[in-house]
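Look over both lines before class:
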Amino acid sequence: MATFIPPKTRLMKSLVLFSALIVLMSCQNKSSTPNNTPELDPNETIINDDSYTLEGEDFENIEKQQIKTKINKKNELILQPDDRAALKDVVMTKTIFKDEDDYLIDYTYPYLNEKIDPRYKNFNEYITVNHLNIERTIGEILETTGLLCDTIPIKRVKDKRIIDFKIHSTADKLISILLYKENYYPGMVHSVYMFESLNYDIRKQRFLNFDDFFVPGSQAKIRNLLNTTIRTQIDSGNIYYDCWELSEGDFNSYKDNFVINDDSIEFYFDDCIICPSYTGQYSVDIPLDEIAPFMNMYQRTMLAVVKN
């Protein structure tokens, strides 16, 4: 006997699923340029400017090229060098892996060695609470699965949740960690990437954010610097022409999302914030020489030690 689900509950679940799909599909519409390729039936023909047609085969080739581009960008991220090996005594690598019928969870994450300093516990607790709640993740996946009608036999693609990280060290005072998350959702052409950076003062055992690095009132200037870099890359062909500049609202949401290496600060953004998902373009890299005038004196001094 089927379980009765009140209409209000069914409506709320439908709205949740519909909202999630709208957010994911909106990637294609955010670009300020009119050249985005709409997601249409591959068998349809579209007309651009009343003079050019794209047949189904052309759409298929575009989709293949987009997938290839995203794979190449993913490989660039995975193969990006970092300081994990040099920091192996302080920063340990741990994993969580679960492969079930409906989902796969594959987490590789950093864990500071509390035997070296018990105060590293606050870092480890942050990682555990904010990123390793497996029960919650599984519940969200199964809730989404439950929204699908189970009276129609369909082959459902497995949900995947993947986390990995890159780490950089600055003069034995700061560790700068990039957590990158890749989610596979059934029905989506491309996986979805999200990022979070953790800048951690290993002497004072505290997390650092934008305001700890940059002088007050520098937000607008740094956003202009990021947008100048984006425009230059678009004009030079280094990133897709249908990427766009960073809005003030998005900058305020992601301004803490940066990692520091030997000669630059790289700001990271989730899919659809500066580029469509298929471009695989997630970050804007600013040389230290260009951004140093907006940094506070302590951070400038610390990074100058690294550069010298």
